[in-house]
Amino acid sequence: MECFRIDESGYTGFDLMNLEQRFQGAAAIAISDDEAARLIREYFPKLQAPELKYRSLVRRPGYHRPLLDLQRTVLSQHKCVTYVCDKRFLLVLMFLDYAVEPFYYEGGVNFYEDGQNYSLASLLYRAGPTLFGSEAFDALLVAFQHAIKEKSQEALRELVLAARRLKWQELPEALGPLVQASPECLSAIATPGVTTDAAMVVLQSLISRMEVMADGPYRVEHDQSKNLLTYHDLLQSYIDHQHEVEFRQSKIASLRFPLKLTSVTQVDSKSSPAVQIADVMIGAIIEAANGLTGLRPPLLDPKEVMSLYGETQFIHLVPSLNFAEQKEFRKGTQAAQMIDYFAKNFSP
User: Fold this and answer.
1) Which long-range contacts (C-beta less than 8 Å, at least 24 apart) are formed by 304-313?
2) What is the pLDDT of residues 77-109, one digit of tens each?
3) Reported confidence tier of residue 168, pLDDT bands at 50, 70, 90
4) Within 13 Å, how many C-alpha atoms sit on residue 182's CB side?
5) Positive/negative CA dihedral, 235, 237, 242, 244
6) Is the CB of residue 333 less than 8 Å from the CB of residue 114?
């Protein structure tokens, strides 16, 4: 059975405002351990470390060309996909999901129609610091993720106060419901199981692409990590879900049940050369994202790394102010129906 190996980078749990790790992502590669071991021997014949680790290798200039050549070979010869998201933007999207959308839903408005939520999130992400002041806007986002985590009346009150301290009239579509302490929104934030943890967003994005790439039933092996332990049962419930249903997410993405995915297991990366190569792939992309946004000087040329990827091999979640393009890309999205379906069938 075909097996995709997955590794991730940038996981910070519920805290999506972490300054040191702005991006989170994961890579999935359909490659056997034997083939992965052969490639490691070919490109790193003198490697003495017990496992291939991107962060360690990239610090040595002599390994820069082998790292690029390894990625080029993997991308040209194996099924693979890499996903990366700007965690701050994802937090803004989540803010709209829980602190805004329930208010519109109560009024019979499809907040997700043609990707309106993405356009508003992009506007809020880009203009929020200017309209409201960067410190005050950050305080709102911090208060939001704290309220989602704590779910206490005190945390909810602090969130409402944080919104009221802003010049919210500058963008009432995004802040009005919270300023009015919308009971629907506060209830959504306080719902058990609702979280700002990005792990499932990342994994769902990979699953949607693996489902397309896989010729038939397949399985996933993932490096041992806290977040997969946290969500293992939920992932298994996706695998076990046998109802036939499909949701369009965008022009190029959809999710259909039952999944072709049959199992998800964890392995020790030291014993899995394939997972080690996934570590290299996601490590290089995260570094490229940091380099392209000027967050820190890259050790590999970000443009050269990105040039290795084909159009269907890279998924990203970042803000875009090209609203017409976003509307066309997400035209006909069934995001609202998908959210309702997941809430009904996959409640924590």
Assistant:
1) 304/68, 305/68, 305/71, 308/68, 308/71, 308/72, 308/75, 309/75, 309/82, 310/75, 312/81, 312/209, 312/252, 313/75, 313/80, 313/81, 313/82
2) 999 999 999 999 999 999 999 999 999 999 999
3) very high
4) 22
5) negative
6) yes
Asked if residues 239 and 218 have their Cβ atoms less than 8 Å apart, the reply is: no
Per-residue buried b or exposed e for 258-292, using 16+ beta carbons within 10 Å of the residue's own CB: ebbbeebebeebeebbbbbbbbbbbbbbbbbbbbe
82 and 298 Cβ atoms separated by less than 8 Å: no
Helix H or strand E segment including 8: strand 2-9
Length of the chain: 348
Q: Looking at the predicted structure, is the pLDDT value of residue 309 above 90?
A: yes
What is the model's pLDDT at position 220? 93
- 10 Å CB burial of residue 347 (0-12, 13-18, 19+) is exposed
- Predicted TM-score (pTM) of the model is 0.92
* CA–CA gap between residue 240 and residue 218 (Å, rounded): 14
Amino acid letter for position 32: S
Work out whether strand 218-223 and strand 245-248 pair parallel, antiparallel, or are unpaired.
unpaired
Within 13 Å of residue 128, how many CA atoms lie on the same side as its CB?
24
Residue 334: predicted pLDDT:
82
